[in-house]
Amino acid sequence: MVSNYSNEVATETVFKVENVSVFYGSFEAVKGVNLYIPENQITAFIGPSGCGKSTLLRCFNRLNDLIPAAHVQGKITYKGEDLYRKGVDAVEVRRRIGMVFQKPNPFPKSIYDNIAFGARINGYRGEMDDLVERSLRQAALWDEVKDKLKENGLSLSGGQQQRLCIARAVAIEPEAILMDEPCSALDPISTLRVEELLNELKENYTIVIVTHNMQQATRVADMTAFFNAKATDKGGKQGYLVEFDQTEQIFQNPKEEATRDYVSGRFG
User: Does residue 81 contact residue 14 with C-beta atoms inside 8 Å?
Assistant: First the structure.
């Protein structure tokens, strides 16, 4: 049984997912998901490996379009607009909905140019120095790098590189930010810095984060979706949504037995 949080809170729904399945060729990797993502909140996707968390996340900015044979069934709307409607520009979708990946991936350019590059491509007409400083401040990185903006972004520590990638994402002025396990390659101190940053960023952005770290979900997420997977006849795994609710409810009083087993550490 799929249990979804039905009493949508009094904030605008940014993403709405209606009966969405994701296929790779004829293989149905994620089946029949229904949920919504509220504005200016952090929504976490949790669940064991292979349950479709990242696959679904990449549907929100159409990154799965870049995978041969991948296609989506069902409907995903962003602020009421069908993201997969004919004529929707996937490149523009990705500009408005930013992405931060699991491993920090700065460009092999200066710290300054890591921020400025995307803005230039997108035709930014403002003062670039101000944009670079503002973006680095938003990513809580300015004070650490302001005297070495000409140095290569790859010279930074792992935690600093990930915050640089977050600064790069916010520099193109998106409306929402997707994060696919952004702290999995970081040490505990860097992880804490990123989590503090997320709580600051949600004042201006809607954030969806995939995480394997359940403690992280309890620390940063307002809403949590728990996914699980079942074996298929073909030997693969098919992911599905088990339960979606306020984070406190998911971890303290889940409706589904499978959710209770997962958050209590009985499997996964």
Answer: no
